[in-house]
């Protein structure tokens, strides 16, 4: 693809009103951030003062599309939560539906429920729509408590199940297995700049102790009887010790320990800046090629994506990754 012939474009819809560069010069800058982790997706739009800009109110729905020519991709849906007037412009910013889960603190006890069922119930209480919530691990009993937000509880469930959890561009919740969506990026063609950070993992292994000897009889066992708890051991010394009374079965403990080990032993992370690419999203995979610093090359997972569109610098995408 020869990017010098492409013309970056946007389409922003605010409460039914559409802003496009062909019929409006009000929008000066757009910034969108979406990520994995306990952080809501955010947006910021700087607009020149105009009657339309001054009619926009808090709480109104914002939908942002970015791309080139007629090929635009939706990258964000959310709500305006802050308006900052300036001398010649006004800045609108806000969040996606993750903020509802981050602000929800409840006490709830579940019996004989799978992880997906718990996630659906938390999403319903928060008023968040669902794209997909896979079943995941089965729990004879599970407690949600006010010491953590609903968002953090769902993150915990995702880690135990080896799932991904995020809010998509349609403002809907996804909780499920990795989707094999990959993007090949080459230095000098797609990649403009890069940063890399080496991480020395503190732990090399995981010991997960579950509460009950349910591995033999499965879900029919008596979970309160615990002669000698099963230990799921993954990796090697030095071990990170986890005691999780919510996990009752041997297979579930093994899967959870493997997922935690994978999380703890990441040893490389970085940032690459590319010519604007609205198709790249958190949890996608990258295939990085031809970067002069060899360790950057290879397959990595997208942690966070930051799109920036401005009249002065065009359209760029900053991708934060790890492996």
Description of the molecule:
The protein has helices at residues 51-54, 98-102, 115-126, 150-161, 250-264; strands at residues 8-14, 17-19, 27-35, 42-48, 61-68, 71-85, 89-95, 108-114, 129-133, 138-144, 164-167, 172-176, 182-186, 191-198, 205-210, 231-235, 239-244, 268-275, 285-289, 298-310, 314-322. With 323 residues, the protein is mainly beta. It folds into 4 domains: 6-96, Baseplate protein-like domain - beta roll fold (Phage tail proteins - horseshoe like beta roll fold); 100-176, 3-Layer(bab) Sandwich (Phage tail protein beta-alpha-beta fold), CATH 3.55.50.10; 182-199 and 267-305, no CATH class; 205-264. Strands 1, 2, 3, 4, 5, 6, 7, 13, 14, 18, 19, 20 and 21 form a 13-stranded mixed beta sheet that branches. Helix 3 (115-126) runs antiparallel to helix 4 (150-161). The protein is globular.
CATH class of the largest domain: Mainly Beta
Relative helix content: 10-25%
What's the CATH architecture of the largest domain? Roll
Q: Detail the poorly predicted runs.
A: none
Count of DSSP H/I helices: 5
Distance from first to last alpha carbon: 27 Å
Question: On the 0-100 scale, what is the average pLDDT?
Answer: 91
CATH superfamily of the largest domain: Baseplate protein-like domain - beta roll fold
In short:
By secondary structure, the protein is mainly β. It has helices spanning 51-54, 98-102, 115-126, 150-161, 250-264, and strands at residues 8-14, 17-19, 27-35, 42-48, 61-68, 71-85, 89-95, 108-114, 129-133, 138-144, 164-167, 172-176, 182-186, 191-198, 205-210, 231-235, 239-244, 268-275, 285-289, 298-310, 314-322.
């Amino acid at each position: 693809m020869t990017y010098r012939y492409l013309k970056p474009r946007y389409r922003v819809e605010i409460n039914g009103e559409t802003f496009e560069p062909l019929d409006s010069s009000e929008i000066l800058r757009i910034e969108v951030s979406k990520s994995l982790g306990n952080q809501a997706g955010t947006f910021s739009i700087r607009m020149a003062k105009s009657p339309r800009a001054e009619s926009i109110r808090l709480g109104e729905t914002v939908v942002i599309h970015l791309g080139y020519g007629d090929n635009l991709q939706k990258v964000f849906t959310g709500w305006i939560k802050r308006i900052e007037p300036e001398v010649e412009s006004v800045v609108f910013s806000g969040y996606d539906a993750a903020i509802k889960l981050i602000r929800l603190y409840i006490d709830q006890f579940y019996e004989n429920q799978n992880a997906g069922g718990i996630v659906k119930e938390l999403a319903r209480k928060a008023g968040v729509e669902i794209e997909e919530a896979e079943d995941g691990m089965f729990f004879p009993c599970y407690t949600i408590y006010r010491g953590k937000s609903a968002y953090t509880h769902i993150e915990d469930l995702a880690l135990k199940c080896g799932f991904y959890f995020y809010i998509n561009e349609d403002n809907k919740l996804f909780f499920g297995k990795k989707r094999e969506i990959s993007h090949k990026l080459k230095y000098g063609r797609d990649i403009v700049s890069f940063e890399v950070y080496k991480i020395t993992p503190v732990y090399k292994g995981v010991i997960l102790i579950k509460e009950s000897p349910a591995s033999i009889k499965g879900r029919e066992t008596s979970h309160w009887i615990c002669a000698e708890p099963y230990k799921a051991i993954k990796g090697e010394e030095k071990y990170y010790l986890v005691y999780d009374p919510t996990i009752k079965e041997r297979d579930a403990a093994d899967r959870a320990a493997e997922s935690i080990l994978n999380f703890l032993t990441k040893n490389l992370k970085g940032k690459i800046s590319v010519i604007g690419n609205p198709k790249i999203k958190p949890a996608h995979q990258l295939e990085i090629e031809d970067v002069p610093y060899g360790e950057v090359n290879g397959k990595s997972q997208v942690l966070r994506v930051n799109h920036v569109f401005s009249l002065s610098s065009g359209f760029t995408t900053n991708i934060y990754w790890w492996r």
